[in-house]
Fold each of these.
Amino acid sequence: MMEKLVVIGAGMASGRMLEHLTDANAPYQITLFNAEPRGNYNRIMLSPVLSGEKTYEDIVTHDADWYQSRGITTRFGEHVTGIDCKRKIVHGQNGAVPYDKLVIATGSAPFMIPVVGRDLPGVIAYRDLDDTNAMIAAAQPGAEAVVIGGGLLGLEAAAGLQMRGMKVTVIHLMGHLMERQLDPSAGYLLQKALEARGIRVHCKGATKAILGETHAEAVLLEDGTVYGADLVVMAVGIRPETRLAVDAHLEVERGITVDDQLRTSDPSVFALGECVEHRQQLFGLVAPLYDQAKVLASTLMGEASAFQPVQTATKLKVTGCDLFSAGDFADGPTREDIVFRDPGRGIYKRLVIEGDRLVGAVMYGDTADGSWFFGLIKDQTDISQMRETLIFGPAFQGGGSVDPMAAVAALPPDAEICGCNGVCKGRIVDAVLGGADTLDKLRATTKASASCGTCTGLVQQVMALTLGGDVAEAAVGMCGCTDLAHEDVRRLIKAKGLKSMPAVMQDCGWTTPDGCAKCRPALNFYLLADWPLDYHDDRQSRFVNERNHANIQKDGTYSVVPRMWGGVTTPAELRAIADAAEKYNVPMVKVTGGQRIDLLGVKKEDLPAMWADLNDAGMVSGHAYAKGLRTVKTCVGSEFCRFGTQDSTGLGIRLEKLLWGSWTPHKVKLGVSGCPRNCAEATCKDVGVVCVDSGYQVSVSGAAGMEVKETELLVTVPTEDEAVEVITAFIQLYRENARYLDRAWKWTARVGLDWVKAQVVDDPDQRRALVARFDLSQSVYRKDPWAEHAKPGARDEFSPLTDLRLEAAE
Amino acid sequence: MMAQATEWLDIAALSDIPQQGARLLRTGAGCVAIFRTHDDRVFALDDRCPHKGGPLSEGIVAGHTITCPLHNWVFDLNSGQAQGADEGAVRSYAARVEGGRVLVSTEMLTRRSAA
Ligand code: SRM
Ligand SMILES: Cc1cc2nc3c(=O)[nH]c(=O)nc-3n(C[C@H](O)[C@H](O)[C@H](O)COP(=O)(O)OP(=O)(O)OC[C@H]3O[C@@H](n4cnc5c(N)ncnc54)[C@H](O)[C@@H]3O)c2cc1C
Ligand code: SF4
Ligand code: FES
């Protein structure tokens, strides 16, 4: 005899399962219960029925003939009231039926928020044909409707009612519509589109009560707003319909628990559809339910099959509102976004990438490529090769050759390129044609890419197209790990508040897991310069000299240069240096060009002990190795020299004591001369002071290395204090803005000395702010690194791990 | 030469080597640099750059590469091969982490200094 299969619920999931079973002529005697007085119809098409675009007849999937020809006994309009698992009997309102196998497919029930008035006539959920018909009946033109819930269902209801001539208000608890499917940007565009067709949207609205005597009349919100309502549609969510399963003592969490074969805790009872929970997951869209239907049909036919939930995609079935969302688009530390906006056409696209995979997509306005993106998500396609052009869709991936230029060329003039400053392609083209042929000029004229900088690449492509492929100054990425230029990265660090190396690498889309020998030292500097209190210096991202606080020599030994403030020393210091030179067998002691003494050829293991000795004599690191303050060269000045106008030695020492320990983009050297004879060679230093009778000529951006450059006058000030303030501000400005490894002269050549003057000379507030930030940074960094590493516990890293020379002999 | 099973020598705790850093092993035939990468893998290379003898242990460790501190040649930590345009290789030895300890192949002890 054939086995008896009883199915509870004739919805979309069980309908599909029955198709599979009966197509295969599975040997079952089937009884199908449904609470609704009808068989299976395409529930998701209720919205077009509501709006009048379709009729119920259009959406019926299985009619009476179908059930009859498949030999299915139907008991429609009959609720199942209980399941007796022990005796294997299902109780319907009109009598019991025994089963060998049972399938529960009861779908879900709309969730009604427990507010006063929810039971009033005129308050409807949106779940089945009866609800739909009730809404259609209530939809008198000019009458008012309030839809509570701005999710998929609520908005479809709102749009349908609006099309039937009602005045509709949507009340949504969250900050933006469809927050589970859309990000705020797309939610915003959707809201604008709904409002444009006359639907009022109230986000962050919490319903307090539904008002009315005998019938719903209005909806009251927590914030006191009242919206008149002849009809209230409650569409705030669904809950798996599990009551039968709970009563039958099947295992139920939020939904009826099923395994990969859709079997419940009772081996003869199966469940599928929105009423189940599979591996902690609930379902609210049909795609995965259809997969379940297939698996369950196989299971019932004794074939091996397992359900694996796949990603789902959402579209809103509101004519004219083109939106698409798929996958997971929550922000995450390991995720990156590609965003495209075209405000002119109301288009927004965002792709979320994790590693080489697309994990989520949100689109508004133009969803033509939605299914293509969805495919990439589902198949976990490696998208690294097409990353550049991915956002432009499959049309630009043709022939395997990736041409970002073609994609950019195809953009309309009103396509937004720079999201921060709202600069569209047309404006960039105009500016470039108007003479802005470098990125800097373009930024100055249009602000494009001048804020967060993430669009720099796109901006440059537009420039290149406009200039015929000839961008005068293509900003190069700072290294192979990123296309972003130093300036972009610095801007992003500040704008996004990125305070760690991983944060920068993730947020700026580094293509390597931990950077390279080029970018890491730069990032380390940028981070410590911008966030002195939050960021901790990363020793492993420093060049050997700065890591070991000594200059490495060609043979792997080191040189040690203690600070000699302003080039002034004492017999005691000289004695200590001499002692150290002897004690550690220093092969060469040399007077440097920077007015101090270099001990060359020291073994790494000896460094901590030697530093400790020098520390004992009151000396600290001279940072002869540092991208930081090196020397302040002075002359004897007014204290001794017959021409000296001011105390140049004293000012030099004061400056060195103020500035030492600070890290800078490249090394910083100062010179202070007592008169224009300039014996301290101040006019070829990063900062030079030449004392004159009336005060101090502060000049900057000189060099005497690979380039020889005379300094340029920044300002002449009457007092030493003012000189110190302006110099400090200048150095802080350099620290905050320059590219790593640009000497001051290179940096001022890029930004223009006038700009520098405007900050540190013309604007006293800005100057003081710069000094304050420098002081803050120095509260952390004005300390002797030698003393730190000479501490007994810290010395280990300077010696080998193990000596295996003895073992070698064995 | 006959293939033989690697013998392992426990030289240190993983935590003795800084992440993205290196420490030295002194052996009869010169120093060996033990590198620890960002993902906590360890590698052992002769501590002599084939270019001009730079101490590789003092370079910057990024990904599974080391950049020589003297003239910035970059070597793959796995193979010891110079990357990019530079040609040359530095000898590498088997190394691994087990239970938080760093083990290296004893092969480095028996090599001749000429190797
Ligand atoms: C020791 C010293 C030469 C000397 O015996 O006098 C010296 C030695 C080195 N200089 Fe210098 N420079 C020395 C004064 C100078 C000066 C003169 C000065 O400071 O008044 C200059 C030209 C002024 C200038 O900087 O503009 C100078 C311009 C350079 C440059 C070229 C910089 C440039 O921007 O063009 C480099 C290369 C670099 O830094 O990238 C350099 C780099 C070096 C390095 C660090 C090379 C290296 O990377 O290993 C040398 C380290 C030797 C060591 O182990 O100590 N050294 N170097 C001087 C140390 C001064 C001190 O007390 O700290
Ligand atoms: C208006 C609307 C629009 C939608 N739009 C989309 C969309 O665009 N895309 C999408 O993927 N999904 C959409 N959905 C969701 C989709 O319709 C559901 O995911 C799907 O119908 C669930 O199928 P099911 O078989 O689990 O439950 P259902 O289709 O709800 O079927 C369950 C059936 O079981 C019956 N039942 C319940 N309890 C009993 C009982 N005790 N005895 C007898 N019978 C019982 C119910 O009456 C019901 O007929 C939409 C849903 C609605 C309401
Ligand atoms: S000029 Fe400077 S960098 Fe060149 S060899 Fe002399 S000390 Fe070294
Ligand atoms: S010695 Fe290593 S790169 Fe020159």
Amino acid sequence: MAERHDSFWELEHRNRRETALLVIVFMALFSALGCGLDFVFGNLRVIEGKVTGVPILTVAALLIGSIQSIASYYGGAALVLASVHARPLLAESTKEQTVLDVVSEMALAARMPVPRAYVIDDTAPNAFATGRDPAHSVICVTRGLVDEMDREELQGVLGHEMAHIRDYDIRTMMMIAVLVGGIAMLADFVYRWSWFGGFGARDGGDRDRSEGGNAGALIAIAVFILAALAPLFSQLLAMAISRQREYLADAASVEFTRNPRALLRALEEIAKTESPLKSASRGVAHLFIVNPLEAAAGDDSEGFFANLFSTHPPLSKRIARLRALAGQGLSSAPASAAAPDSSIA
Amino acid sequence: MIVVLIVLAGIAIYLVSVYNSLVRVRNEVDNSWRQIDVQLKRRHDLIPNLVEAVKGYMQFERDTLTQVVEARGRAIAAPDQASRVVAENQLSAGLGRLLAVMENYPQLKSDQNVMQLQEQLTTTENQIAFSRQAYNDAVLALNNRIQAFPSNIIANNFGFKPAEYFKVAPEDQVLPKVDLSLGAPRA
């Protein structure tokens, strides 16, 4: 599996690059919004074709953006866990012990440190992983997953999460979750103020009827549009980055369990779920193994726009790919439900 | 002149990175091997407790129980690696049989202590299997680097040796597969 091994280093590097790119894009959006606010509040003015003034708010936005980037790197996991109301998973019953044990099993299979385990009290079966690197990683499952999945299905799901951890998807996804939230908040703020400030000021004194005033109004409109589009833009970015990783993690889960039936059975079980996950918000939806916002039973839409606006590939497509794998004789091993291929044991 | 220096520097950086990746993979092989040991040790520690807990219920399975205890003793006392592997494989087979016949004693399911031990043993068996799998993956990665061009030149010059796969003796491979899912009853 040298190819797989090498490709996982490539994946890690790709994730490092994309995280850096993400922070740059985020900072650019932040300073653009700050700059727009400067024009709206008159800190910056266009006088006779030249920009004058002190861009206080641009600097402030950059500062806030930097602080938020650093905070999301170190504290993102805690933020994400708090936002979905997760608490540490304790071994209070045999079933919970089994989940903790399977987490250790998959960590061994992936040659990674054992992540901490958390649980969300919700009956919709789902799971996600987060953290800034494998040594600080967390796997969070729902109560529904703990109760409904047998050992083999748990191995499939937790193997998928372990793959996100090994490939450093967790860092990129966590940063997206926190930064997209930040953009949305700032954009909302700018949106409101560009409405009041920009258009309100236009009817004001003499200077607005001058050339500079017109430019100011144009800038206000540009800021207005930017503020309206920034959340959408960052959301689209999050979705595009998230979608392709799901197939890769599905494949890596099979690599760990050597048993395509494990994840296949789990996804088929989840596909029957009628209820969405209550505590999940749009900001963290892309972290989960299946989209928590829609009832999984209805998550089958395809086509360009459906693909553009979804964080996950359609479940039916993922299941079809796993079926193809299971058909290739890889499924010969699991005569037993729980044992990994016992011919190597 | 400058071009020559740049090319030489590039070659040097390449050599260092190949060497470092060889070291990294070799360490992974060593670490995976230790992981197997950790799990085998844990299994040795668990067995006396499990045997003690189920002895009362399973009067008629004395043979199965003794086999497990004896295999454990042989594995612990094994003088060399080869005989230890044999003994551990016999222990795996014996435990598989024990966990399977435990299915025939429904009263075990109501014993919390037994259920916990069973879960611990099931996961230990799985972790042994997964750590062997991880070990073999690491060995494959190392051996590929040692044999493939151009990393083989560096590997040979610095004395990297191909590692041995964890193989199972032919007679052990035909053992019946045992259902270890006992620890996870579906509600």
